[in-house]
């Protein structure tokens, strides 16, 4: 998991991909693995019990996905932030949506040697 300073840095300086359930900020990692930070806004979900429930759902998806991430040539730090539609979606829809965004970053991202300006990708 990422610390609060690292999360702030990734949000300010990293790139992002967006769909109806998630906003994912990411940046290249110098480590040999992918790291994740999960955010559920207090304005979106008032009770901490429910925020933790949604975080556990995302962690469950990431546990199954982590093997793919370790096998990729590039490793990233991810910050996953939940959007309102996430709350009303079924679990399989959430899972497919998150995996689709992570695959977009891992397998369609330009090589680190290529210079790319900060960009937003809407899916």
Please provide a written account of the structure:
Helix content is 42%, strand content 21%. It has 123 residues and is α/β, with parallel strands linked by helices. It has a 5-stranded mixed beta sheet with strand order 3-4-2-1-5, sandwiched between helices. α2 crosses α3. The chain is globular. The model is unreliable at 113-117 (pLDDT under 50).
What is the CATH architecture annotation? 2-Layer Sandwich
Identify low-pLDDT runs: 113-117
The helix/strand class is alpha/beta
Number of strands: 5
Rounded radius of gyration (Å): 14 Å
Overall spatial form: globular
Order of helices and strands: HEEEHEHE
Number of domains: 1
CATH fold topology: Ribosomal Protein S5, domain 2
Write the layout of secondary structure elements.
Elements (H helix, E strand, L loop, with lengths): L3 H10 L1 E4 L3 E7 L6 E5 L8 H24 L4 E7 L8 H18 L11 E3 L1
Parallel strand pairs: 1-5, 3-4
Antiparallel strand pairs: 1-2, 2-4
In a few lines, what is going on in this structure?
The chain is of the alpha/beta class and 123 residues long. The protein has helices at residues 4-13, 48-71, 91-108; strands at 15-18, 22-28, 35-39, 76-82, 120-122.
Q: Which descriptors would you attach to this protein?
A:
Ribosomal Protein S5, domain 2; 5 strands; alpha/beta; single chain; 123 residues; globular; 3 helices
